[in-house]
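Sorry to interrupt, but I need a hand with the structure work. Could you write out one complete protein record for me, on any chain you like? Just paste the record in under my message, thanks.

. . .
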Amino acid sequence: MSVAATPAPAAPAPRRPLERFLRLFADVREGEGTQLLLLAFNVFLILTAYYVMKPVREALILAQPGGAEIKSYAYAAQAALFVVLVPLYGALATRLPRRRLINVVTLLFIACLPVFYFLAQRGAPIGIVFFLWIGVFSLMVIAQFWSYANDVYSPDAGKRLFAVIGFGASSGAVFGSWLSSVLIRQLGVNPLLLVAVTILATSLLLFNVIDLRERGVGARARGGEADPGAALRPRDVAIGEGAAFALLMRNRYLLLIALITFFLNWVNSAGEYILSAIVKHEADVAVASGSIALSEQGRYIGTFFADYFRLVNVAGMLLQLFVVSRAIKYLGVPVALCILPLVALASYTLAALIPSLAIMRWVKVAENSVDYSLMNTVRQLLFLPTRRNEKFKAKQLIDCLVVRIGDVLSAATVYVGTAVLTLSVSQFAWINVAVVMVWLAVSIVTGLEFQRRVAAHDRRSRDRAAQAAAAA
């Protein structure tokens, strides 16, 4: 029987004002609101820090000779870095319990920032190194946060609450972009690195507050269910044995998640190329026709992308706040997992038939807004019915290395399509249609496997509760 079709009995309406307010956006139950908001604010701070640092990344890399070309090769270099870094992270996770692992890794990233600031102030050529560093940071620290969230919530609670945490991430991206645009005019470029230090240090302090609350001794509710073993829980939870690559290769479910991540990034990156190619063509046509001067071409392109990014961010935030939790609740994770591939399939089919700027603009707005909201939340939910070592180690491998491999393959597709086959924009869109069809098939299989695993988890939870009741 479908897990989505057999919801748990309705919980009583919460009495506290906080939970009653949060129920406007998700199915938040009594006693869940404070910890949920703390987690949402934690990831808000992480994303704010990242977007505060992004202008520094662009300034440092583009100031170097050949910076624009170097940027196009950076994803491949990051993929190579992750081949080394993911096993190192896994080895560290084997030796350190959960809380200490997150503290150590985050402190290492924080410690790098004053060094980068010192070198940048003295004009050292650190653009490439910082570009690679921030690429690692943006994937590894965010993946680590979601590993923790997956570990502290049951599948039932995660399906109800992750949309609120996801809103913390999306609003942090928007706020960080705004904050960097304000501060860079007042402080300059390099001091933004010190601002990021302050924000990340605050996020780490907040994480430790969250973890102290999570590890509170005594009987309490976790995921809407009684936790009779809370009093016996260790002070810091061990991650467990196993190497990331080995955990991934011997688990069919994790391989399916990796394939979804791979195809998603392949399609999205190729779509960004298609949009950029059309925008550049339209700008060239405008210059040739005399509509704009050649000196205004950069402003034409920049204005288009500024409006485009604003549309994507606003649409993504609205979807995250009002649609995501309801889509997961009423449609279920298996169906929600297929929504982005279906949107992409319809979008790129339309773009292939009518490869105009107006069409492609709305194609990418639809794709990216759904990706940044619903798909991002559902991808995090997929790790709920996995073991702790899989949440921390295999997730790092999937969210870091597999993401970059998808980007690299997309870049290779663009290179072959432009330099060897001279494909048109329409033909690139048809390639995306073919890839999306495979992605959709993998999503269907993954959704069914998630359903099966959650059902098994629920049976085990009921068995443990019955045994605890009998023992009492």
Notes: The mean pLDDT is 84. The CA atoms of residues 164 and 208 lie 20 Å apart. The chain is about 80% helix and 0% strand. The radius of gyration is 23 Å.
